[in-house]
Amino acid sequence: MQQLMKQIKEFVDKEVKQTIHKWFNVQKKAARTAISCLMLLLLYGCTFVRDDTPAVAVVSKDDSDLQSATEEKADEESQNAETQENVSHTASAPSTEMSATKITVFVCGAVQHPGVYELSEGSRVYEAVACAGGMTKEASQTSVNQAELLTDAQMIVIPTKEEADRQAQEAMEKSDGLVNINTADVEELEELPGIGASKARSIVAYRETHGAFASIDELKNIEGIKDGVFAQLEGCIKVE
After folding, report:
1. What is the pLDDT of residue 120?
2. Which of 76, 92, 98, 131 could form a disulfide with 117 if both were Cys (CB 3.0 to 4.6 A apart)?
3. Model confidence band, residue 47 (pLDDT cutoffs 50, 70, 90)
4. Does domain 100-174 have CATH number 3.10.20?
5. pLDDT at position 84
6. pTM for the whole structure
7. The CATH number of 179-238 is which of 1.10.150.280, 3.30.365.10, 1.10.530.10, 3.50.50.60?
């Protein structure tokens, strides 16, 4: 009986020990699994923290840069607007000043009311004539360029038809090709046949001493101009 009880006790002790051992093994595995899971969570958590921190910093920096760029652009646009406004004022100032500039001219001759008149710069002759009441019936309307631009202190003379005809006649006489020995200078006289530099100076000196030539024959009084030379000059000269 005692022997049986001893065997039963030994069996129970053995089973208990094995059960306890198995339970510890199970708990150990569970603990290892739990520790592994915890380490994984910590590892991923650290990774998220490392990934998130720069991202937040970058986003913050981008927002700051974007805000700075926006402010700089706004300032630049404001400065450009001010510059354009200043340029506009500067460009318009001369125009205003120019439009306000006045000139003074004297209109006389064959006009209704001769006198001094003030006009805007850039005006033309016909506007000055209009200020003087227009031309008279005797005026020669084609003798003056009525489209000519006026200048300050200019004198506009409107001739009559008679005066215009006389001026035209005088111009024709002056263009007859003859050299007026009373007004010609040394260079003009040198172009005459038979007259060199020496004779040209002698003609001018004679004129200055004795006054204007009364006739072309008076040239013979000058030394070096005899009948032969005078014959060459006779059809090329005149006195007026």
Report:
1. 94
2. 131
3. low
4. yes
5. 59
6. 0.38
7. 1.10.150.280
